[in-house]
Amino acid sequence: MFLQKKISVFLALFTATLFGQQEKMVPIKEGSFVPLYGATNKKPVKVASFEIDVFPVTNAQYLAFLKKYPEYSRSKMKGIFADKSYLSHWQSDFDYGTNNLSNAPVTNVSWFAAKKYCECQGKRLPAMDEWEYVAMADEKRIDARTKEAFNKYIMSWYEKPKTYANPIGQTFKNYWGVYDMHGLVWEWTADFNSIFLSGESRKDKDTDKNLFCGSGSVNATDLMNYAAFMRYAFRGSLKARYTTRNLGFRCAKDKVALVKTFQNLR
Amino acid sequence: MKPKLNLKKQSIRIVVAIAMAFGLFSCAKKEDKDAQYYQDIKVEGQKEAELTAPPLVPKPVGDRPAMKLIVNMEIKEQEGEMADGVKYTYWTFGGSVPGNFIRTRVGDEVEFHLKNHPDNKMPHNIDLHAVTGPGGGATSSLVAPGHEKVFNFKTINPGLYVYHCATAPVGMHIANGMYGLILVEPEGGLPPVDREYYVMQGDFYTKGSYGEQGNQPFDMNKAIKEDPDYVVFNGKVGSIAGDKAITAKVGETVRIFMGNGGPNLVSSFHVIGEIFDKVHIEGGEMINKNVQTTLIPAGGSAIVEFKVDVPGTFILVDHSIFRAFNKGALGMLKVEGDENKKVYSGTTQEGIYLPEGGTIQNMPKENGTAKSVVAKTVPEQIKSGKELYGRTCFACHQPSGQGIPNAFPPLVKSDFLNANPDRAINAVLHGLSGEITVNGKKFNNVMTSQNLTDDEVADVLTYVYNSWGNNKTVITPARVKAIRAKPAPKAVATH
């Protein structure tokens, strides 16, 4: 028992998530930032202190959850809560098969399923602003959005095929100690559909203005907008019951619940 | 209150539009009547549309009645090759660039199923220029990966139309290859021809410059500056050249459905050695005859038709000609059959032109020996050879010696060069024509003789031999002089 704990501490960063259902979380300090969308009049949005999972939820973790809550297994899942492709890459209800790594992010899960998963851990899905706030950090700074290399890294992911099959924790560790915000999979947020992009982008006038407002070249700010735009556009194409191969999730929780985390750990 | 007001506005707009249409086309009343008429055409039966990847097109509609047509279009983001050794991640309609060809007739009711492959990362949609409605369908078709959207439209204007993705950033989706053509044939179909092909031009913007090897990501800055590294037909360099050239036989009539996806450039479409008998200007109903070069706007098209009268290889180009020879906008139509000397004789005589009369002279060749002064070191040779290369050779063999697939052989790691330096010297002195094989690929083109001194020939070849993985042969002016003294090797028969 004691030994097990010791090992898990040692391997925490890489594999802790394999052993139990309780993912490692890190605290995120409060702050404010101007998101690409959703802020009225481009005023900064305040983000209160919270905690977020270090890694996205993995196949193994999700399987453990399903064993506890079999009504969320593939064959039992209600159609209104997830479409037909829900966990379609798994071999069966309780087996993610040999083609999927245990420590690869679980994908093909709907918003309903992701939300339920987090709630069953005493957590919640991160709000979009919270997610974006964490995602704007690179290795060294809280807000790296104006850094060209950072944006190029994000965008290079768009051209890399099949990253969903990669194990978690192989991208960079950001300022907060969080991995895989970029370069692995898209992630659900609690209020993913709170910003409406029609998809007929030429009608979404403001967004176009943000992106290409008369500029003769792309500067770092444009690049940043353009990288972020892809996330908002992707979210805009989703419905809560949708599942896609490149879309996973991670959980968050309010700061006040810190004590509970330890309780849960025990 | 408000909706009513909008409705009123809209109806005013429609009235204005109709009035304008009448005003503009007052001398072509038939078409106006038709627009309404096509809307009222009843459909008979239903079928799934045949979709084809370029350069092929689906079967003509012929005299079939208007039908309900099911189009199943799958979007795939996939890695492909822009040129030999150059990888690019394309976003495609149906797995090809340009996307699959859709063939309808006027009055058809199209049920469009847009499917976004589950492995894709991006949401996409489609704007078909053949659609009358908001966004050309784009407002109804934003589809997440692993999902499908369905919308319906009726084709009420015959013509050849572009379709493309309109998800932001629109330019990026188009630049990655998300465009294609949809044909709306008139009642009774287009007049039958012997051959039909599908070609579409597009400009591409990569991080590395033309020919730079490896995986090349999209470059937004170059796209905004409209400074493409590649301008190509059918999505990649050499897609319809060499073995993949489109073909016809002497006496046949060829119809090319030619589109331009852009995103930026306008195409000056021309077929070297042919004259378009007919051009449906901008893909519409008006026909122009006997056209040399037709302008195809970005997001536009043209239908060109011509009868091929003589055999040979006819080169399709964007006549903004640096695009053809330096950026890849080059295709081939190979025509087989009997010669027709009346139409084209071929070279009938070859001789020396001496404007000043007088005795036989051989000016350019005498130049060769005149200037030899001091022997250069090898690095000096390479240096001056590099400059010479930049003036004389790069236009065809390209700045990094990579050549142009199916047109100009590469000088990079060239087995042809390394095997026989004397042959290389001869090629520079006297030119080279006819079929040769370089690094396993066949080339059949003409290199002209270069008017260079012995020193210059030695320098430029030494530069080439000491670059790009060649065998570092050093060519001395003396060696060039010796070869110049010999008679030129008999040229392979030129046509």
Automatic annotation (TrEMBL), chain A:
Q: Name one GO molecular function term.
A: formylglycine-generating oxidase activity
Domain named Sulfatase-modifying factor enzyme-like is located at 23-253
Question: What Pfam families does UniProt report for this protein, alphabetically?
Answer: FGE-sulfatase
Q: Which superkingdom?
A: Bacteria
Name listed for the protein in its UniProt record: Formylglycine-generating enzyme, required for sulfatase activity, contains SUMF1/FGE domain
Which source organism?
Answer: Flavobacterium glycines
From TrEMBL, chain B:
Which cofactors are reported in the record for this sequence?
Cu(+); Cu(2+)
UniProt KW Repeat keyword: yes
Q: What Pfam families does the record point to? A: Cu-oxidase_3 (PF07732), Cytochrom_C (PF00034)
The UniProt annotation places Cu cation 1 binding at H124, H129, H164, C165, M178, H319
Q: What is its EC number?
A: 1.7.2.1
List the molecular function annotations (GO) for this entry: copper ion binding; electron transfer activity; heme binding; nitrite reductase (NO-forming) activity
Catalytic activities = nitric oxide + Fe(III)-[cytochrome c] + H2O = Fe(II)-[cytochrome c] + nitrite + 2 H(+)
Keywords, alphabetical: Copper, Heme, Iron, Metal-binding, Oxidoreductase, Repeat
Domain Cytochrome c span(s) in chain numbering: 380-468
List residues binding Cu cation 2: H173
Q: Write down the PANTHER family for this protein, in alphabetical order.
A: ALCOHOL DEHYDROGENASE CYTOCHROME C SUBUNIT, BLL4482 PROTEIN-RELATED
Outline the subunit composition: Homotrimer.
Q: Family per UniProt?
A: Belongs to the multicopper oxidase family.
Its name, as the record gives it, is Copper-containing nitrite reductase
Originating species: Flavobacterium glycines
Which lineage ranks, top first, belong to the organism behind this chain? Bacteria, Pseudomonadati, Bacteroidota, Flavobacteriia, Flavobacteriales
